Amino acid sequence: MAGKILRENGNASIEYAIAIATIALASVGGLILLGMTVGGGYDYIANSIEMQTPVPTAVITATNTITQPTQVTAPAADPVERDRESTTDDETGDERSRQASAWLFDNFDDGDTEDWYPARGETWRNENGRYCAGKVKKEHRTLTGDPTWTDYIVSTQAELSEGKGFGIYFRATNPDKLNSYVFQYDPGYGIGAFLYRKVVNGREKRPFKVVRVSRGYEWYNTVHHVEVWVEGNTFTAFIDGQQVLQASEPEYKAGQVGLRTWGGSTVCFDDLSVMPLD
Predict the structure, then answer these.
(1) What are the residue boundaries of the structural domains of the chain, listed by start?
(2) pTM higher than 0.70, yes or no?
(3) d(CA 109, CA 100)
(4) Of 85, 54, 49, which is closest to residue 270 (Cα–Cα)?
């Protein structure tokens, strides 16, 4: 009896398979009449019968970390982080708050430059609400602030019209025979570079950090937002919100801020501020 059942089940299985094959062939024939290929017909049937399992997808991100770069591409035109750019036309609540918490803020709109000490150069002037110097080959230096300032952010809007560049002094003391660090925006250094120098008794030393900038950067006739973060022995420079230079140097612990031009440069500064770093 058991054998008979097995045989009957086997016959039933064969009959079932023949029925399925007949339906499949009829379906394929119908699909062919509709314009599908035989392969496409079989795919259609298979997809209709199978249970589909969702395919997981992965998002792959690549992070490029550059340690102590020797060359950078042109920075972005606008700040991209920390909302650094100053408000120059309309003073928003955030801008007024920033000014209130600053150790120093000067937008030069009132034409008053009495808080600045022009230690070198004769062409420092207020020009249409900006602090400008240039069109002579002699170096120009001007300083302001408190010689006891330690950790801070000095920022300004700067536009170079011609010449070899400009600099921002920090931790500056003894203005007439200057001891200081300086960040330089320096298109005259090779093909152009951002760099740090140390000034000792009025004389500049060789740069202690240089980052060369790729060709095509808009050095001239473009207003750039420049910041230098001075914290402990580490100094970090940003142009338009992009970090371009970082270095460490241990000697000078406190000092004023200032501005520099040289090499026939014409440059104007605006919205200069010094914010404490807590």
Answers:
(1) 2-49, 71-276
(2) no
(3) 17
(4) 85
Q: Give residue-wise pLDDT tens across range 162-217.
A: 999 999 999 999 999 999 999 999 999 999 999 999 999 999 999 999 999 999 99
Which residues make beta-bridge pairs with 166? 185, 261
**How far is the C-alpha of 233 from the C-alpha of 230, rounded, in Å?**
8
Task: Look up the CATH number of domain 71-276.
Answer: 2.60.120.560
Q: For the CA atoms of 96, 101, 106, 110, what is the dihedral angle to 10 degrees? A: 50
DSSP characters for 190-251?
TT-EEEEEEEETTEEPPPSEEEEE-TT---SS-EEEEEEEEETTEEEEEETTEEEEEEE--S
Measure the CA–CA gap between 165 and 131, rounded to whole angstroms.
15
Residue 36 φ then ψ, to 5°: -80, 155
